[in-house]
Amino acid sequence: MKSRQLNYDLRKLLKPYANKWVALSRNHEKVLANGNTLKEVAEKARSQKSVFLKVFPTDSFYMP
Amino acid sequence: MKYRYTSFFPPEKTLKWVKRPLIKTEIFGPKESRTFDALIDSGADCSLFNVEIAELLEIDLSRAKQRKFTGISGTLTGYYLPEVEIKVDGMERSIKIPVCFVQSPTVGLLLGEEGFFDSYRIKFEKDHDTFEITSVKS
Q1: Do A51 and B35 touch (CB under 8 A)?
Q2: The domain that contains B86 carries what CATH number?
Q3: Does B119 touch chain A (CB under 8 A)?
Q4: How is residue B115 annotated by DSSP?
Q5: Total count of domains within chain B
Q6: Pairing of β B33-40 and β A50-54
Q7: Number of helices (H) and strands (E), helices first, in chain A?
Q8: A62 pLDDT tier (thresholds 50, 70, 90)
């Protein structure tokens, strides 16, 4: 069985970005851009390969 | 392929973290694709994507059927497309799954039962901090 031994720890990285969309570097070590809308974030991060994520509040548990 | 859970900031001081089964997933529109972190959600009947993703990728929702969804925060209406192409990081091929696009501040990308869990066998092994995704057609 192949394994991707990646263990992304986003605790500190995403704490300031509650309720925002963020563009993360592919290795999830940097926030390349953030904003209130996905379009805005995609425009800011246009030239960079990134992974987009909607960040939820850090003061509550997530329940879709 | 095995993946690790992703750690998020815990809402209570008694906890070290909250762990979620997130997977990098490429979403294809008619002209381009973008990569997102998607949450694997076996409790969701089908996959739900935020409607902003359709807008960004120019996915046409004008002919999408409306579907109602009920969750913990009430009922909302989404726009259902029977086939959206996605490629899960580490998997050889892309697949097409049904997706409902919803306007909700609490939905990013959820990979749910219909289509996604039909295409992949998912094993959650949280005690090992891993989950495993295997194509059922391989």
Answers
A1: yes
A2: 2.40.70.10
A3: no
A4: I
A5: 1
A6: parallel
A7: 2, 3
A8: confident
Averages of pLDDT over runs of 10 residues in chain B (138 residues) are 91 86 96 96 94 97 92 86 96 96 92 96 94 86
Global ipTM: 0.91
Contact status, residue B3 vs residue B120, Cβ threshold 8 Å: no
Q: Do A52 and B106 touch (CB under 8 A)?
A: no
Contacts of residue A39, Cβ cutoff 8 Å, sequence gap at least 6: B52, B55, B56
Note the pLDDT of residue B138. 53
Domain map (residue ranges) of chain A = 16-54
Structural contact between residues B43 and A29, judged by C-beta atoms closer than 8 angstroms = no
Q: Specify the pTM.
A: 0.91
pLDDT score at B14 = 85
Query: The domain containing residue B16 runs over which residues?
Result: 2-135
Cβ <8 Å between B7 and A7: yes
The alpha carbon dihedral of B97, A20, A53, A25 has a sign of positive
Q: Give yes or no for a contact between B64 and B81, defined as CB atoms under 8 angstroms apart.
A: yes
Chain B nearest CA to A55, separation (Å): 8
Contacts of A1 in chain B (CB under 8 A): 1-2, 132
Question: How confident is the model at residue A5, as a pLDDT?
Answer: 53
